[in-house]
Backbone:
């Protein structure tokens, strides 16, 4: 189905089903999907390299990710292997390097991690943002069973704030601003399958897919 290389980034409100959209899209198009569990950095005592190996080994079939992180070296002063090895800024630089290298290799889907900003200027970059009505988000998180009933709304707002602050800190941009994205889809209206269909239709209109 794939015609030429393209990259899809998915930003998402907490509880909107954005990660589910990304995974369904990857499965339908036969693309690797890199989410926050794969790309996130850890600052444990074993150090960043061991953390990278651990993350790369977490899911079978991520050969490209393992190959890339195994050969990671500091590029000039960014990222650093010095005293600021596990600082949040340095971890972000390492993460961004991995994202860029993966995007150079093949078509794929990135969920979160400011990938829309990190890959700015990349050819055939499609930036998607998934949002939803609050009632729908509450119901999705309720079904997941993550929190007690009286804690659901508070944690949705907390997670949104963390993502909003993270995005602003590392990009200087408003996380939910429409100018940051090519498509903004309300999963409460069309469902996650509908979001996937909309994204595929958009890709086809851009001439990135063939029947």
Residues:
């Amino acid at each position: 189905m794939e015609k030429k290389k393209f990259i899809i980034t998915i930003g998402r409100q907490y509880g909107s089903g954005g990660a589910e959209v990304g995974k369904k899209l990857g499965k339908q198009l036969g693309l690797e999907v890199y989410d926050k569990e794969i790309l996130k950095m850890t600052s444990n005592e074993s150090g960043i390299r061991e953390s990278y190996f651990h993350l790369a080994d977490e899911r079978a079939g991520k050969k490209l990710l393992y190959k890339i992180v195994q050969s990671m070296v500091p590029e000039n002063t960014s990222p650093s292997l010095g005293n600021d090895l596990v600082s949040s800024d340095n971890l972000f630089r390492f993460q961004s390097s991995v994202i860029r290298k993966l995007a150079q290799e093949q078509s794929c889907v990135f969920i979160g991690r400011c990938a829309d900003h990190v890959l700015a200027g990349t050819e055939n970059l499609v930036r998607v943002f998934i949002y939803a009505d609050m009632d729908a988000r509450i119901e999705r998180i309720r079904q997941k069973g993550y929190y007690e009933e009286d804690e659901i709304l508070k944690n949705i707002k907390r997670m949104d704030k963390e993502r909003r602050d993270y995005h602003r800190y590392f990009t200087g941009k408003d996380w939910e601003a429409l100018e940051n994205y090519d498509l903004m889809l309300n999963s409460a209206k069309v469902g996650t399958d509908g979001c996937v269909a909309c994204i595929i239709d958009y890709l086809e209109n851009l001439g990135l897919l063939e029947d």
Summary: The chain has two domains: 1-31+107-211, 37-106.
